[in-house]
Amino acid sequence: MQTSAPTTAHSSMAHNRNPTLIELKNIRLAYSQEHHDTPILDDINLQLDADDFVCLLGPSGCGKSSLLNILAGFQTPTAGEVMIDSQPHTGPSAKVGVVFQHHNLFPWMTIAKNIEFGLKMKGVEKSERKKLVSDYLNLVGLESSAHLLPYQLSGGMKQRAAIARTLATDPQAILMDEPFSALDALTRENMQAHLLELWQKTKKCIFFITHDVEEALLLGRRILVMHANPGRMVVDLQNPLSSYRQSIQELKHLKEFHDLRSYLISAIRNKEVNSPRLGWLR
Amino acid sequence: MGPRSTYKKHVLARGVSFISVAFILMIWTVSTHFKWVDPVFLPSPQSVWQTFLELLREGYKGISLSSHILDSLYRLFIALILALFTAVPLGIFCGISKYVLAFFDPIIEFYRPLPPLAYYALLVLWLGIDDRSKVALLFLSAFAPLFLATVASVQRVPQDRINAARSLGATKPKVLLYIILPSCLPDIITGLRTAIGVTYATLVAAEMVAATSGIGWMVLDASKYLRSDIVFVGIILMGGIAILMDSLIRLYQHLQFSWVGKQDS
Ligand SMILES: Nc1ncnc2c1ncn2[C@@H]1O[C@H](COP(=O)(O)OP(=O)(O)OP(=O)(O)O)[C@@H](O)[C@H]1O
Ligand SMILES: [Mg+2]
């Protein structure tokens, strides 16, 4: 790590950690172009706990999506390995769910069928599937849209359906690549609250890419910042705000929120910064 | 614009099409009524109708009119079904693997632009003059458009959609069956419409070269005796059947693929 992370990061890390679920070991990624290789990711080492909510920030093009694709198994790294539950993870599987920036629902399937798809692939009994589908439709508030096709839904509804579809297969980890960035501010706030509530209920490992510092602060228990050329981790911070269970609106008025926000913004911009004073945490 | 006014426009467009047909019928009636054209070249609508009723009653050359039509359609459907069950799977594999495509591409690219009648003689030589050579010819003309539509469609399936299915636990064969095939189905059906058009044209040509039944054969045979009324009945029937088949497929597309072309779907 290059930038000195705030001291609070380490103190709050002292709480009893859950077992590691995902481990990235010396991940490198390079795309070969013409005569030379362009390094995209350089020696990424990372451990995600089974109940972590990790937000990844970084400038555009620094390799966030590339890292997610490696985690998901869509992309094979040039070097290094991904371990899930101490098993090498070499291809996509239902263990790791993915929510994309574009909802990626199957356009010919109704919302209910979309949510059912993963269960069908798993070989879940038909009656059981029905029950689970209605549970997850309820969870994201789409009961009344079960029999509509994706194009008949609004952007926010589609994104909720996509989240329900991923959750229904009960993955151990959920990777999200800027899932709310295409939504309007109000819908986004709703979705953030929704997701936070979900995570508090299920305590699944969530790996969440965003370019929105506030979003990272509101959601993440742990916040990572990447720099580009080649992509590498520069900040790994336990978010002190995450233990403050307040509404998102209230959180935004805290002074600490603003301190952390400007700290992260300068960290993304690659400036030498002083750690915010967060003495109040201890 | 609301759905109501779109519907209104739809009805209006239908009305315009109707006027166009009525206009042609009118010119036809008037020009034959006043004998502007020799009835040998252009029979009157009434005589064409009379001939049609007569053909319905007595058939043509000992074979009923419906048998002629069914003979033709039978050849067409056997060929189309064979083409569907070969061109689509092969197209899917070629769309997935560029090596498989590289293997089949030269073969298909070579025969595709050939006029079917050019190799029909060979097919007749190999398979005989009966239905087998005709079905083979029709199969070949249906195969290429279906194959090409399938390949192009598979190549356009978004990688993210495949990735989504994989991370929902779908194995590769299941991705093929549950994701790639349905993704491509609308394009395959469009390819089928093209294939039917091409095959239909070939069918009539094939029956004109070597046959003893079929609607195409009836038209050619009648023209030898200058029976232009029978020729007209044949042509109108052929056109009508083609329009009927195409409308049925379009209706199916409309009902089944409402999601196609919808923004952000
Ligand atoms: N298939 C590819 N071939 C070559 N280079 C690629 C490929 N995919 C991505 N890259 C490069 O990898 C780098 C990282 O891309 P990536 O999509 O991971 O960035 P990102 O951090 O997700 O950016 P954003 O915030 O804009 O989504 C970029 O410089 C991009 O040009
Ligand atoms: Mg990205």
UniProtKB/TrEMBL annotation, chain A:
InterPro entries registered for this protein in UniProt: AAA+_ATPase, ABC_transporter-like_ATP-bd, ABC_transporter-like_CS, ABC_transporter_ATP-bind, P-loop_NTPase
Keyword hit for Nucleotide-binding: yes
CDD domains xrefs: ABC_NrtD_SsuB_transporters (cd03293)
Domain spans labelled ABC transporter: 22-253
Pfam families assigned: ABC_tran
UniProt superkingdom: Bacteria
The entry's keywords: ATP-binding, Nucleotide-binding, Transport
GO MF, one example: ATP binding
PROSITE patterns linked to this entry: ABC_TRANSPORTER_1, ABC_TRANSPORTER_2
PANTHER family reported for this sequence: ALIPHATIC SULFONATES IMPORT ATP-BINDING PROTEIN SSUB, TAURINE IMPORT ATP-BINDING PROTEIN-RELATED
Protein name per the record: ABC transporter ATP-binding protein
Naturally occurring in which organism (per UniProt): Anoxybacteroides rupiense
